Amino acid sequence: MKNFLVGVTLIATGSAAFASDGWLGLRSSIEASGSIFDRKIEKVLIESTTSGSPAERAGLKQGDTILAIYGREVRGAKASELAQQLQLQAGQQVTLTVRRGSDDNEARQIVITAVEKK
Questions:
Q1: Where is the PDZ domain (predicted)?
Q2: b vs e for 81-116, b when ≥16 Cβ sit within 10 Å of the residue's Cβ?
Q3: 60 FRET partner, CA 20 to 30 A, in 13, 25, 68, 70?
Q4: Is residue 11 over pLDDT 60?
């Protein structure tokens, strides 16, 4: 099965949005494998954060890897499940487990509160 890369923007619009009316302010890429009907996530990388966004204030940086959402590992999850887990309302919090840099670095949990997109 082929791996493919999907770009996801964590904003409040579109089907790829991670926040319902909330906004996290980060852009990520998802590496996934499997058939078009059964895509499984391999890796989620932060591509960028918006200046002043909740993601930037929480300390996320380009190149960070999201390992888990609410303690549930993203590797092996369906891409559609990932989007559902992160449909937030403004004021709701999401807990991400992230790793900066190489796999040797320790993972850490970050709590981000979604805000209303201005």
A1: 7-102
A2: ebeeebebeeebebebbbbeeeeeeeeeeeebebbe
A3: 13
A4: no
Q: Kindly indicate the confidence band of residue 4, based on its pLDDT and cuts at 50, 70 and 90.
A: very low
pTM of the model: 0.79
Q: Residue 65 and residue 78: Cα distance in Å, rounded? A: 17
Domain 3-116 class, CATH top level: mainly beta
CA angle 79, 41, 61 (to 5 degrees): 95
Cα angle 75, 76, 80; round to 5 = 100
Run of H or E residues at 54:
helix 54-57
